[in-house]
């Protein structure tokens, strides 16, 4: 199992490292940066969806939805990141406890 | 700007919250504390780590090839982040290993939210190091406590992870184009997740972002 852990870690690391091996002339231009920033927004937004609205790959609505709404409100009022996360976790835990 | 260290530590502490549940999940899945720690130290990519222990938990040793493949597939986006960060960081030779290991959602998100190249650099290193420290310390705590912790959902840790991604993308949702990209990627990822392997929905989100960016800038 330890070997499997190391093999999987190397596999995951290979992506991270490959990105740094691409010659700079391909990635150091404003057009690529613009595209890359848009894709980063796409990736993070997709992760909000997967983490917030799926369970075992199935579409699911549960206490994570109100927690995300609370997080959005806290972010709107420029609360610190840690307050947003702790608030969302506590709210969702409270809902699960009482409902 | 001195807000970067504050944001970085804040993001680190937040990821630490669900690193506890990763640590507990690792030992519950049958990994030793050392193996669970190796995942956080060497793999250091939350989604891939959760996928690896998730597959091992249900399939045991026989499922190891699947576990490795799942972790690998979920790590694709880090390669993309690396492309984005490489020209900003300009790491020489073997030092690329350092920046590569810290190239994750959080470090890239905080970096790309900055407006200058030096800000991006500071955002990346501060956040990468902060998350690495908190992630590993809290994994250890979770692994030692093990199944005494119970279901992470009871503490709302699944909501914490969702809120963390929302908090990371939030500063970027400052234009109609990016808001459209965000909503489209989220809807596409959620609606396809039942039909494609784990990791692919997020990549579809990346693809739709590229398409919208292309048409939006014409």
* Low-pLDDT runs of chain A: none
Query: Given the structure, what is the number of helices of chain B?
Result: 11
Note the gap between the termini of chain A: 40 Å
How many separate domains of chain A?
Answer: 2
Largest sheet of chain B: none
Strand content of chain B is: under 5%
Q: Sheet bearing the most strands of chain A, described?
A: 2 strands, antiparallel
What gyration radius of chain B follows from the Cα positions, in whole Å? Answer: 18 Å
Report the sheet-strand fraction of chain A. Answer: under 5%
Which structural class matches the secondary elements of chain B?
Answer: mainly alpha
Percentage of residues assigned to helices of chain B = over 70%
Low-confidence runs of chain B (pLDDT<50, min 5 residues)? none
Q: Taking strands numbered 1, 2, ... along the chain, how are they ordered across the largest sheet of chain A?
A: 1-2
- Helix and strand content put the structural class of chain A at mainly alpha
Which overall shape of chain B is indicated by the principal axes computed on the Cα atoms?
Answer: globular
User: Which bin fits the share of residues in helices of chain A?
Assistant: over 70%
Order of helices and strands of chain B: HHHHHHHHHHH
Question: Which features characterize this protein?
Answer:
heterodimer; A: 99 residues; mainly alpha; two-stranded antiparallel sheet; B: 218 residues; 0% strand; globular
Write up this protein.
The complex is a heterodimer of chains A (99) and B (218). By secondary structure, chain A is mainly alpha-helical. Chain A is built from 5 helices and 2 strands, in the order H-H-H-E-E-H-H. A two-stranded antiparallel ribbon of chain A has the order 1-2. Chain B is mainly α and 218 residues long. Chain B folds into 2 domains: 3-168, no CATH class; 173-218, no CATH class. In chain B, helix 1 runs parallel beside helix 8 and helix 7 runs antiparallel to helix 8 (117-145). Chain B starts with a helix and ends with a helix. Classes of the chains: A mainly alpha (99), B mainly alpha (218). At the A-B interface, helix 1, helix 3, strand 2, helix 4 and helix 5 of A face helix 1, helix 2, helix 3, helix 4 and helix 5 of B.
């Amino acid at each position: 199992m330890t070997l499997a852990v190391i093999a999987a870690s190397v596999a995951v690391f290979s992506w991270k490292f490959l990105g740094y091996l691409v010659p700079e002339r391909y990635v150091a231009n404003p057009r690529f940066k613009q595209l890359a920033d848009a894709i980063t927004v796409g990736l993070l937004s997709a992760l909000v969806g997967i983490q917030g609205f799926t369970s075992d790959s199935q579409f699911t609505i549960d206490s994570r939805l109100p927690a995300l709404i609370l997080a959005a409100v806290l972010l709107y009022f420029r609360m610190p990141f840690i307050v947003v996360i702790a608030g969302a976790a506590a709210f969702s835990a409270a809902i699960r406890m009482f409902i | 700007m001195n807000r970067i260290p504050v944001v970085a530590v804040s993001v680190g502490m937040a990821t630490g919250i669900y690193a506890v549940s990763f640590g507990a999940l690792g030992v519950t899945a049958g990994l030793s504390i050392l193996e669970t720690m190796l995942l956080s130290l060497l793999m250091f990519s939350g989604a891939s780590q959760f996928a690896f222990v998730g597959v091992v938990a249900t399939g045991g040793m026989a499922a190891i090839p699947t576990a490795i493949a799942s972790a690998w597939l979920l790590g694709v986006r880090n390669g993309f982040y690396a492309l984005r960060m490489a020209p900003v960081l300009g790491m020489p030779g073997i030092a690329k290993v350092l920046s590569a290991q810290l190239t994750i959602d959080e470090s890239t998100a905080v970096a790309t939210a900055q407006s200058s190249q030096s800000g991006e650099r500071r955002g990346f290193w501060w956040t990468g190091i902060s998350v690495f420290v908190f992630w590993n310390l809290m994994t250890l705590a979770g692994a030692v406590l093990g199944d005494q912790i119970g279901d992470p959902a009871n503490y709302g840790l699944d909501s914490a992870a969702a809120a963390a991604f929302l908090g990371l993308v939030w500063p970027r949702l400052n234009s109609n184009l990016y808001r459209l990209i965000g909503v489209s990627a989220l809807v596409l990822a959620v609606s396809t997740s039942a039909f494609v392997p784990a990791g692919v929905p997020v990549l579809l989100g990346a693809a739709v972002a590229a398409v919208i960016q292309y048409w939006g800038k014409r």
